[in-house]
């Protein structure tokens, strides 16, 4: 099993590595740094009260490393420029194997095309690998297959069934080289 690489908190990330973006765990204060505005670019949703944000934050924090939300903070502005999440599913099959599910990847429109999305996804995958996952899966729309291919994923065409409450069709991508 891979060894889990620690994800820095905001305090640790600020230690200054000269990078334009600091990738770290989401923190409560991120509600004031444009985190929800960023997620709104992924899926329009009504604004959250601080109380609702805190309640969800605490719920997720209780899951520890099995539910990681990463953000990339712009070192110059302090705003959240990208985010992504990975959930670790614990199975009975595959000798009680674990599977990582990548979700809610988004880069601020003004920061796209600079490799930030790929950095976030690779960090999420690394986390899943570090927690012993034998594969990582995700769903995305057809136009994103090129992006996820750059992140090391390959498309899996067959055997995908989805009951979705949205009308948009989704493709299924599986990283199968593990
Ligand atoms: C599981 C999910 O969450 S699916 C939802 C994904 N999120 C969204 O659709 C929200 C809106 N879109 C975005 O936030 C961004 O465009 C993202 C996250 C898809 C990509 O983020 P970016 O930071 O712009 O991508 P990044 O610059 O890291 O691109 C890495 C590579 O993928 C390529 N790439 C990026 N987007 C695409 C695309 N749509 N199609 C093909 N290739 C792409 C880039 O050209 C780059 O290739 P290169 O290394 O040869 O230059």
Give a written overview of the molecule.
Keywords: Acyltransferase, Endoplasmic reticulum, Membrane, Transferase. Its main location: endoplasmic reticulum. Pathway: Nucleotide-sugar biosynthesis; UDP-N-acetyl-alpha-D-glucosamine biosynthesis; N-acetyl-alpha-D-glucosamine 1-phosphate from alpha-D-glucosamine 6-phosphate (route I): step 1/2. The chain has 6 helices and 7 strands. It is of the alpha+beta class. The protein has a single domain (10-140), classed as Aminopeptidase, CATH 3.40.630.30. A 7-stranded mixed sheet has the order 1-2-3-4-5-7-6. β2 and β3 (80-90) form a beta hairpin. Bound molecules: acetyl coenzyme *A. Acetyl coenzyme *A is lined by residues 42, 102-107, 112-118, 138, 140, 143-144, 146-147, 150.
CATH topology group:
Aminopeptidase
Number of domains as seen in the coordinates: 1
What is the approximate shape? globular
Spans with pLDDT under 50 lasting ≥5 residues?
none
* Gap from first CA to last CA: 12 Å
Could you tell me the radius of gyration in angstroms? 16 Å
Strand order of the largest sheet: 1-2-3-4-5-7-6
Order of helices and strands: HEHHEEHEHEHEE
What descriptive keywords fit this protein?
178 residues, Aminopeptidase, 7 strands, globular, binds acetyl coenzyme *A, glucosamine 6-phosphate N-acetyltransferase activity, 6 helices, seven-stranded mixed beta sheet, acyltransferase, GNPNAT1-like, single chain, transferase, alpha+beta
How is the topology of this model organized?
Blueprint (H helix, E strand, L loop, with lengths): L9 H4 L7 E5 L9 H6 L9 H12 L5 E8 L5 E11 L2 H4 L1 E10 L8 H15 L2 E8 L4 H6 L3 E2 L15 E5 L3
Parallel strand pairs: 4-5
Antiparallel strand pairs: 1-2, 2-3, 3-4, 5-7, 6-7
């Amino acid at each position: 099993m891979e060894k889990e690489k620690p994800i820095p908190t905001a305090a640790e990330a600020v230690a200054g590595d000269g990078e334009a973006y600091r990738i770290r765990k989401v923190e409560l204060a991120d509600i004031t740094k444009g985190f929800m505005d960023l997620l709104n670019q992924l899926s329009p949703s009504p604004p959250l009260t601080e109380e609702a944000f805190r309640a969800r934050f605490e719920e997720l924090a209780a899951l520890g490393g099995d539910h990681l939300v990463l953000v990339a903070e712009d070192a110059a502005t302090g705003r959240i420029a990208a985010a992504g999440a990975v959930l670790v599913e614990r199975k009975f099959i595959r000798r009680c194997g674990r599977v990582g599910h990548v979700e809610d990847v988004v880069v601020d429109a003004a920061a796209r095309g600079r490799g930030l999305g790929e950095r976030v996804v690779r960090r999420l995958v690394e986390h899943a690998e570090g927690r012993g996952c034998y594969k990582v899966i995700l769903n995305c729309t057809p136009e994103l297959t090129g992006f996820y291919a750059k992140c090391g994923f390959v498309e899996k065409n067959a055997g995908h069934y989805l009951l979705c409450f949205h009308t948009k069709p989704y493709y299924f991508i599986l990283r199968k080289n593990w």
